[in-house]
Structures are given as structure tokens and as C-alpha cells.
Amino acid sequence: MKEKSIPFYTSINDFLESIPVNHRTKNPMFYCMRLEEHKDEIYKAPFRRDFFFIGLITSKGKTNVIYNNQDDHIKESFLTFQCSNLIYSFYKEKNTEGYLIYFKQEYFNFLKFDFFNEFPFFNILNINLFQLENKKYQELVPVFEEVFKSYENIDVFSKVTTHKFLALLYNLKEFTKIQNELQLLINSSHSITNQYLKLVNVHYLEKRTVKEYATLLNISASHLSKTVKTETNKKALSHINDRLIKEAKSLIQFTNLSIAEIAHQLGFSDTSNFGNFFRKHTSTSPLTFRKNYTTR
């Protein structure tokens, strides 16, 4: 039976139970998981959570990470950072190995600086996933091991573990800084388009016009439209509409919300407007789409 809505996890242990894995954390703010201890294939349908995630993962098989409908197939190894409240799903095969760290922002309440400014790789506007060659993966393993050995061998509430984790974040900050400097070599058009698509993923529910995104990027709507069209061969507005359609499909497929409730959740004035919008972009009605999905 489908759940009432896309799950939103506020507890790390509730999330672990849903995967499912057997381990639980005694510290509700922090948890470290070695993937090799969980041999089974895992598919996790779309969900949201109010805590952060870091993953250093390698796989000889198929690993897919989807967040806010950005689908990344991992060829070898990767480093990823996720902030809270994103739509996220994943699939891993049995031979996947690596390190996962889950933590709540309150874990660092003792810090005096702004967390997102200090560690910008958690900001949705920045790069959050880095494909790695095996050599680079192996270089990062020891710094993750420092945290995991402390977590596994010392009291999980120990300040030693917290400080080692903080040291890891600063190490990764230096790594991502180097990677981002390489990104500066990418042309301006690609950069603008990349930022635009990320902004659409965050603000698509309340911002429906290209002009609103151009304002966020401090450029003209005309320049943004031309840039996105050149880079993607699609109109800028099409990306906004596509994002709405993807969210609508997720809600139709994975929840029992009525079409009227989905229309309201997506910000449409009434069911008719939502139905017309959905039909225009999918050539089918929301009800027909749900029926076709449930009869597969």
C-alpha cells in the first residue's frame, strides 16, 4: 500500500529502519555507516529528511543517486553532500562499499560561524556530487577512517569524534575548493545554466517565471533565456514546467493524495488548471497516469 505522502524523516533511526538496515545510532544527532556491512541490494523510493548526509562511495556495479530529480549514475566512485529537505532516492548493488555519515545541524550548535558559509558544499547552488577516480577515492579513505574508528571505538557522544568529524569537513572543504577552481574554467554560459537549473529545483513551487530566476541570478530575463536555450536546446520556461511535472508524477505515483490535493500542494488555483497543465505536458490526464502506473 502506498504511503499517504512522500516520507519526511526527522529521526535518523526512523530513516535507518525504513531502508531497512539493522543498525541504529545511540546519538540522535550523528551516525556513521560502513556500506560493506550492509550487503543487500537497496532501493529507497523518494523521500525527504531534515538532517545532512555525506557519502564516499565506490561500486563496480550500478549505483544511482537521485536528488530533486537530478539522476546521477556512478561509473566508479563518488563523493556527495546533501543538505536537508531535498527529495532524494537511491539504488545500490550488493558490491557497493564506502562510508556514509548522517548528522543534524544541531550537532554543531557550539560553532559560532554560519554553517553553510563555512561549508558551502552543502549549498544547493554549489556542486554537491563529485565523480572520483579510484586513486582519489583511496586518498580520501584515511580521513573518513579517522572519524569512523573514533565513532566505533569511543563513546558516540565523545567530543573526540565531533572534532575528528569537523577536521574531516575542513579536509573536504579544501578538496572541494580545488574542484570548484577547476569548475571556473567552464564557460560562463554553462555556469549560468547550471545555477539556473539548481535554482529551479529549489524554487519551482513558488517561482514560475524566467524573470524571477533572472532576478536571483542578477541578469536579464532575455540573457538567461538565450543562454539556457543555447546550452540545453530547451527553453528556460520548459525546465520550470518539466520540474513541476516530475514532482507531480512523484506525488501521483508514490502517494495516495487526491488529484485536488496534489494540485493544491503544487500551487495550482484549482484541479482543472492542474489537469490542463499536466495533460499539455504529458498528453494524458493525472487520473489516467495514476491508473496506468498502478496497473503495471
UniProtKB/TrEMBL annotation:
Gene3D superfamilies: Homeodomain-like (1.10.10.60). It comes from the Bacteria. Residues 194-292 form the HTH araC/xylS-type domain. SUPFAM superfamilies: Homeodomain-like (SSF46689). Keywords: DNA-binding, Transcription, Transcription regulation. SMART domains: HTH_ARAC. One of its GO terms (molecular function) is DNA-binding transcription factor activity. This is AraC-type DNA-binding protein. It comes from Ulvibacter litoralis.
